[in-house]
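Ticket #4471: structure export looks truncated?
Reporter: QA, pipeline team
Priority: medium

Steps to reproduce: submit the single chain below to the structure queue and open the exported record.
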Amino acid sequence: MLLLVLRALVFVVVLPGAVLVYIPNRILAAGSALPSFDLGWFRLIGWVPIALGVAVLVWCWVGFVIEGRGTPAPYDPPRQLVTGQLYRWVRNPMYVALVIVLLGESVAFQSLALLAYTGVVWLACHLFVVLYEEPALHRRFGAAYDTYRGQVPRWLPRFRRSGDGTGATEAPGRPPPHGQT
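Actual output as written to the record:
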């Protein structure tokens, strides 16, 4: 288990570290040559999605190690299909979290260049998911992945009424909590 955690940490430091820290830092270092916008104190609100996105990333990385018995890295994939926790709501919460963090950085640092970079990252994630990840998961997990893919949306969660009149929602494709029908 320790080796698995170390392998996951290597991936976490390299790829998300580059996408969320190193490249944005290089963009911001270009400084005055790039367009920006002035939000005044409102820019502080950008730290909320940064914190939320980082929390989601950590939650997902832990889920990959515990539930999937692997890492999020394509070269060291999980042994089990990860469908629990946040993966009950969307199939790609880590990519959603990356974009949320980058949107927060765009606001916090008042940078149109970071906002454009966020769009490029989202497009790259989308193409990676559609062209590589989904076909690879289908080959690896077969019908289990196909069922999961049919029940859980790729990017944005679908909220359904529970039907009990409380207005509570449940994750798609999952039975209601114990005691509720």
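Status: closed, not a bug. The export was complete when the record was re-opened. Leaving a note from the reviewer for reference: The radius of gyration is 18 Å.
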